Amino acid sequence: MKRISKLFLTTFVILAFSMATSIFAQDNNTDDEYGDGDVYDDGTVEEVYEQNGAGDQFISLKLMPCFPLNFGKQLYVGGALSVGYHRFLTKYIALGGDFLFGYNPTIGSNIFTYVPLTLAVTFQPYIGKFEFPIKLGVGFAVENYLSMNYFPGLIIKPELGAYYRFNENWSFGIEGQFMYMPQWFVEHPENDSYGLFIMAALSARYHF
Amino acid sequence: MKTNKIVTLILTLGLLVFTGCQDPIFSTINKEVSLEKVTISGDINSIVRYTYGGVEYLYLQNGGICRKVASNSYYGAWSKVNAPSGVVIQMAADDLTLYALVATYYDNLSEYENTGSTKYVYASTDNAASWTCIRSGISSGTVARLFCTNTLDFTNRKAFINIGGTGYTCSSTSLTENSDANGKYSCASLNGTLKFHDGYAAVTNETPTTDGTICYYSKGSNVYYENTTTTLGNYDYVNGTIYSLAYTADTLLIGSGYGIAHVTHDSTGALASSTSSFSTNAESTLSSQYEVNALLTLDPSLSETGGVHYGSLTFSGTGSNSAQFNHIGLWAYYPARGNWNCE
After folding, report:
1. I want to staple B199 with a disulfide (CB 3.0 to 4.6 A). Which of B41, B137, B218, B242 is the partner?
2. Does residue A15 belong to any structural domain of this protein?
3. A5 within a domain of the structure (yes/no)
């Protein structure tokens, strides 16, 4: 599983980098209107208003059902609430963090809860007023069940979303999140296990 | 400045790692089972053996009184039987008689609550068909605890009651003062030798075919074990006060204010120095959210996973945790089912 995680991370980074390169490349080529490698400014080029730029920030609020993927009938569908803060370094790349509270009922009428805190890098291309964040969050979680705790637990959380920029300050959209939550035990490796969860979020973002 | 930030970050990460706790949550969840419908709910403080007409019965109280034929080791075999009026809070049995400690309450309109009024001791010699009051007028403020040896050999069964620190031996018609039981809360019989203790639980390694040679008993959160003359050892196994003990061929089950635990023992009966994880779903059912007030193993000659066990749950402490009302009551482990579940 550790190997799969590494593979997944590597793939995600390569994918994000190649998409960024391609979009930046397209963006640069649009200024070369004669195709000769030079860019001419005759004073008629309009200033383009970008939806996001370096220094822009946003706060996100997400509400989502949480589907356990690898517990069979042992865990039921639960829910989660997430709050995040992110700041753009460029018009495409943002850094920030997310706080999430989630729960899933168990087959034995108990509750599994988890509070992950993740640092995330977001690559967000856009088309018109539609924004498509691709995000990777890594952090730790406090996990609780009955009187048992697992802390700090590793969390890896890739996300994909689609938003409509309603106005300068607000965007609304949907997100799919995948969460990998391993539990490792050095002295009792027979208890090693991991949780895989997928979430579908309704989200609102306030930009400032 | 940058160095300071790095040091702070490293210290924070170190603190996170070294203050962490790693309990096996996912592997415990994977042992959970779907719960049966609860048929025996309420606070259960006693599960006692009683022999009548050559048939071995199990009795328990949950406000009323329930009974099953001991050999009916399956879900749904308990039935409610005749009980004295009031709330039955404890039970005991000797070789001939069943005993019930009953509390009465009145509506305290000034406090809007039920307030304890008086406690009574009742006895029945006809398998709970009728009950006779053998002691009345125990005030609600007086501590009273009814307990018995609960041996497999019914001829060694004795019942006692501690009323305000004074010990009594119970009989079908009266209570007789017994100074050995003064201030005591539990008793075991090592083949007829009575061992009184001031902890809440005591049990022996008696089996259907062998006499008991070792008595295990609780004192606070400690388990002690002794033979007829000498204390052999003691360990502090659990966080909460121990309320119940049950012996199996390979383990000692420990019921406390912090759920169920178990510890292995060797062929001489000597206990291991620490508890171990359950292979069953015991930790997710009789969990640390609850008090395990009563435990009983039907046949102690069988292993823990090969025998039938009963355990009762009630709320622990202030009830500020996520304990659930519908889990309060009787639970059972049947080897044919292979897991703990509601009764």
Report:
1. B218
2. no
3. no
Residues of A in contact with B28 (CB under 8 A): 145-146, 148
Across B297-318, average pLDDT: 93
Q: Do A152 and B281 touch (CB under 8 A)?
A: no
Q: For residue B309, is it within any domain?
A: yes
Among B184, B219, B240, residue at a domain's last position: B184
Which residue numbers in chain A have pLDDT < 70? Answer: 1-49
Q: What is the pLDDT of residues B247-295, one digit of tens each?
A: 999 999 999 999 999 999 999 999 999 999 999 999 999 998 899 999 9
The answer to whether residue A119 neighbours chain B at the CB level (below 8 Å) is no
- The answer to whether residue A4 sits within a structural domain is no
How far apart are the CA of A208 and the nearest CA of chain B, in angstroms? 28
Residue B36 located in a structural domain:
no
Contact: A191, B20; criterion CB under 8 Å: no
Domain count, chain B: 2
Rg (CA), chain B: 22
Quote the pTM value: 0.82
Phi-psi region of B331 (alpha: psi -120 to 50; beta: other; left: phi over 0): beta
Q: Given CB atoms, is A189 within the 8 Å cutoff of chain B?
A: no
Q: Which of A71, A145, A180, A192 to mutate to test the interface with B (most CBs of B within 10 A)?
A: A145
Element (H, E) at A15: helix A2-29
Same domain, B338 and B238: yes
Among B30, B288, B324, select the one facing A147 at the smallest CB separation.
B288
Residues B147 and B230 in one domain: no
Tell whether B172 and B281 lie within a shared domain. no
pLDDT digits (tens, 9 = 90+) for A38-57: 666 666 656 666 788 999 99
How many Cβ pairs within 8 Å bridge chains A and B? 90
Does B16 fall in a domain? no
Alpha-carbon distance of A121 to A95, in angstroms, equals 5
Q: B191: which residues sit within 8 A by CB, 6+ positions away?
A: B156, B206, B211, B212, B213
Contact B55, A191 (CB under 8 A): no
Same domain, B134 and B264: no
Return d(Cα B240, Cα B10) in angstroms, integer.
Answer: 36
Task: Give B139's contacts (C-beta < 8 A, 6+ positions apart).
Answer: B118, B119
Kindly report, residue by residue over B212-229, the tens digit of the pLDDT: 999 999 999 999 999 999
A102 interface with B at CB cutoff 8 Å? no
A117, A148, A139: which is closest to B26 by C-alpha?
A148
Question: Within an 8 Å CB–CB cutoff, is residue A70 touching chain B?
Answer: no
Instruction: Give me the domain span that covers residue A154.
Output: 52-207
Shared domain for B299 and B225, answered yes or no, is yes
- B146 with B273, same domain: the answer is no
Question: pLDDT digits over B171-223, tens only?
Answer: 999 999 999 999 999 999 998 999 999 999 999 999 999 999 999 999 999 99
* Parent domain of B210: 206-343
Q: Are B295 and B333 part of one and the same domain?
A: yes
Out of B17, B25, B258, name the one closest to residue A143 (CB).
B25
Give Rg (Cα) of chain A.
20
Whether residue B59 is found in the same domain as residue B178:
yes
Q: Report if residue A68 sits inside a domain.
A: yes
Q: Is the CB of B32 less than 8 angstroms away from the CB of A191?
A: no
